[in-house]
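Allow me, if you will, to draw on your knowledge of protein folds for a short while. The matter concerns a single protein, recorded as an amino acid sequence and a row of backbone structure tokens. Could you please explain, in whatever detail you think fit, how the structure tokens follow from the sequence? I remain grateful for any guidance, and I place the record below:

…
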Amino acid sequence: MSGHNRAPSAPTLTHEFALMASTPWFLLARVFVCVLGGVWFVTGQIAAYRTIPLIDAQMYWGVNLTSPYAGFSWGGQWAFSYAPPIAQVFGLLQAIPWPIFATLWTMLNLAILVWLLRGRPWVAIALAQPIADSLLTGQIELLMTAAIVWGFRYPAAWALPILTKIGPGVGLLWFAVRREWRSLIVAAGATLGICVLSIAIVPRWWIDWVEFLTNRTGGPTPAFYLRAPVAVILITWGARSNRRWTVPAAAILGLPVVYMHSLVMLAGVSYLLGQRETHSGPALERLSFARVASPLR
């Protein structure tokens, strides 16, 4: 027999979570989330089918290339409100027949959703209504969320959320607070470069867009001016404490108007929370061991 006595293995974070997950209260909470998600999904489908299927995707694909912002009606069927570079990109995509574009657009959104929520089906259930609303109306928020997540590695991706909704650009504070100047310069430089190129091609669109932003009615809502400071505080705290999930959360708060489908961006929060748990697993386990073992010392 070996002369070395092994100390009893300390419970890890995984073991502790498994014990917590087996408690009646945790199981009851999961059932509640599933039921609530089911209700959201059904009501979301009803709301979405009351409108034209893929109405927002039709707006993107069918943007008026003569004057994208003429006759704007906030909330109307063809209410295109994004920056001129986005209109130019969708103008090129008009070469694709609508049925093919609609299919590809939906498949792209589904692929992003599966990527963001893989291994977390309970999040998909909890976000059932925003997901249904987003997919059935053909929203752009899932692409924006993917760009925000990719933006940590490829900062130039920030051009998409900035040139569409503008407000989510608050996420660039992450780089500023952390003094990641190279990433900040790349993100801002890529966005500025796209704008300069766009202005050189269709300068009139930019004049129309600026007039549209300053004269239009309907957004941002008064709540935006309450949400914006919260977004700044949240992302500043997140940057200082290395919590990446605060970036898509702050981006939601930075949206000029928050709709039900806007909450699909919480899929990005879930993804980054999962990444944080994966990357910090050993450290958390060591912390758990220290807490369990300390009374035995």
User: Anything to note?
Assistant: The radius of gyration is 23 Å. The chain has one domain: 38-280. Residues 24-49 form the longest helix (26 residues). The chain has 16 helices and no strands.
